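Predict the holo structure. Ligand: flavin-adenine dinucleotide.
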Amino acid sequence: MTRLSASCGGSGYWHQRADVVVIGTGVAGLVAALAAHRRGRKVVVLSKASETATFYAQGGIAVVLPNALREGGDSVDAHVADTLAAGAGLCDPEAVRSIVADGYRAVAELVHDGARFDESAPGQWSLTREGGHSRRRIIHSGGDATGAEVQRALDHAAALLDIRRNHVALELLHDGGAVTGVLVLTAEGLGVVHAPSVILATGGLGHLYAATTNPEGSTGDGIALAMRAGLPVGDLEFIQFHPTMLYDGHAGGRRPLITEAIRGEGAVLVDAQGNSVTQGVHPMGDLAPRDVVAAAIDARLAENGDPCVYLDARGIDGFERRFPTVTAACHAAGIDPTRQPIPVVPGAHYSCGGVITDVYGRTELAGLFAAGEVARTGMHGANRLASNSLLEGLVVGGRAGKAAAEHAVDAGPGHAVVPDTTTLRALPRAELQRAMTRYASVVRDGDGLRRLAHELEAAAPRKLLSRNDFEDVALTTTAAAVAAAALARMESRGCHHRSDYPDTDPALARSLVPAAACC
Ligand SMILES: Cc1cc2nc3c(=O)[nH]c(=O)nc-3n(C[C@H](O)[C@H](O)[C@H](O)COP(=O)(O)OP(=O)(O)OC[C@H]3O[C@@H](n4cnc5c(N)ncnc54)[C@H](O)[C@@H]3O)c2cc1C
């Protein structure tokens, strides 16, 4: 048993009060914080790091514009249909419709907050296409720097808020029936922010794996925090591997993404012999849903024994102007994408599952909300459609902020009691990432997943002396939940591919929600 106050070297805690605490400063967190602030609530925003996945988003935001049916044949129905098709029978159709239909309003609010998107003609947004989309409906900014623009606009709009950087949320405090605050670690020691409403917007879990497109803070913290509070999580077996992460010979950490929009503009995936990787695999070829393309690459690499495949973008006119972020990443790796194919491999990219919420971000615990990548609203099912996550973060983040603001009024001031003891276990990060990469990647099987679960059971008690310690604990908790979910799903569906169960089982067309459990 680890006594938190003792292990962090402080005899007492600092205390703060707020109506709404938001954990996270990416798209979901800042949109939520602004929504609660604009309803007159005292909002405190916590962030352990300055980097967010939001900043790194490249391709764009999928959204149906008001005049889309007339001009390009797009519609909410078509976007919903594409999302459901990618989700492989596991989306909640009502949740998808609710979020997609609210997309343009949420984007318009972001524009009101200062975001700017690329135009093909004055006043007309330029639309691109990505894998799984039947229409051109992705708005983008700075070519392939959409996330940087979204983050810039939101940072600017939120500049007047009380944002605490280098504050690590360690524990959700609750009285069994309702959330009461957050236990926080800072350089000054431990503290408590008391609040009747808390919004988890902690992003993803890419660092479960040795190589990922995610920033270093994506360590599954929100999932671990919710599980420790006894809340159910769902669809965690569905981790999306982006088909095209830059392969530059380096093995670990955050690796640059090569956006799917490049394939949308005509680039093709070939192996070292110049043969198409996806021909005959799916009618949409290189623009098939991500799991299909990632699995095709994985199979080709296994077959040929090559370290990577190639994205040939040499035919795209004005590549450097349209894709400046990718061009810079390629140049940094000594590759000229206008003259040579770009070496790529699949990489851990996005968590389709998470903390179970409704489309307003409400969890089972009164006063606790979750939005963005940490949440499982039913939008993504077994596989997220490209560019649907910024959309979900904008829509559900705003709704959660509003709902949290309303809840704070109804519930009155919160008073958190800090638990005396907590048992926390962690596997060393490199070991955990090695095991996850080996046993729970693009293709898994029962033997490997059982071995993974066994290795995770060896996690030892860890004192919480630093952010790093807490992240290792969060990674271990989250990895155990992913392994359990992947073992339980004895079929292949969406981005969960089991080599021992290669077919989809119609009887499993539902979320398997294991009971909340925690190490
Ligand atoms: C390279 C890349 C490209 C992408 N491209 C696209 C795209 O084109 N379109 C699209 O729709 N999606 C894209 N995505 C996915 C999308 O960017 C993310 O899903 C989305 O931005 C997540 O937003 P978020 O607000 O949930 O989390 P994030 O933006 O990751 O923010 C998480 C926040 O939580 C904080 N945090 C985490 N744990 C703690 C803790 N314990 N205590 C305190 N703070 C904590 C972090 O510091 C951070 O501020 C991409 C992702 C990546 C990595």
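The mean pLDDT is 92. The chain has 17 helices and 27 strands.
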